[in-house]
Amino acid sequence: MNRFSVIQARSIDEAAAALAPARQGARRVALPQLKAGGMDLIDLMKEGIAEPPTLINLLTVEEAALRRIDEGRFGALVTLAELAADAALLRTAPVIARSVALAATPQVRNVATAAGSLLQRPRCWYYRNHQFDCLKKGGSTCFAVEGENRHHAIFGGGPCHIVHPSNLAPALVVCDGSVDLVGGDRTTLPIARLFHGPDRGSVLGEHTLEPGEIIVGIRYRPAPTSGFCAIKEKQSFDWPLVFACVALALEGTTIAGARVCAGAVAPTPWPLPAVEEALRGVDLGDGAALSRACAVAAEGATPMRDNAFKVRLLPVAVRRAIEDAVRPARAEEATP
Amino acid sequence: MADADQINQPTANRSFNDAMVVDANASRLDGVAKVTGRARYARDVTVPGMLYVQGIRSPWGVGKLAAIDVPAAKAIPGVVDVVVERDTGEYDGDWIGHVVAESRLALRRAMRALAPRWERGEPKVGIDPGQVVLDAPDEGASAAYRRAAHIFEAEYSTPVQTHSALETHGLVVEHRGESAIVHASTQGTFAVAEEIARFIGLPRSRYEVRCEYVGGGFGAKFQIGREGSTAATVAAATKRSVHSFCTRREEHLDTGNRPSSHIKVKLGVARDGAILGGQIAVFGGTGVARGGGGASIPSRRYALGEVSAKTTNVRFNAGAPRAMRAPGHPQGAFAEELMLDEVAALAGVDPLELRLRLDTDESGARRAMYRAGAEMIGWSRRHANGAVPEEGGPIRTGLGVGSTSWGALRGPAQAEIVVHRDGAVELRSGAQDIGTGFRTVIGIAAADALGVPLESIDVRIGRSTLPEGPASGGSVTTPSVTPAVIAAAQDAKRQLLEVAAQRLGVAAARLTIVGGNLRDGERVALAWADLCRLLPTESVVGSGRFDGRGGTLFGEGHSHGVQFAEVEVDIETGVIGVRRVIAFQACGRILCRKTAESQVIGGVIQGLSYALFENRLLDRKTGAMVNPNLEAYKILGSVDMPVIEPILWSDATQTGARGLGEPPVIPTAGAVACAVLNAVGAPVRHLPMTPDKVLAAVDAAAAQPAGQPADGRPRREGGAA
Question: Is 0.90 surpassed by the pTM of this model?
Answer without folding.
Answer: yes
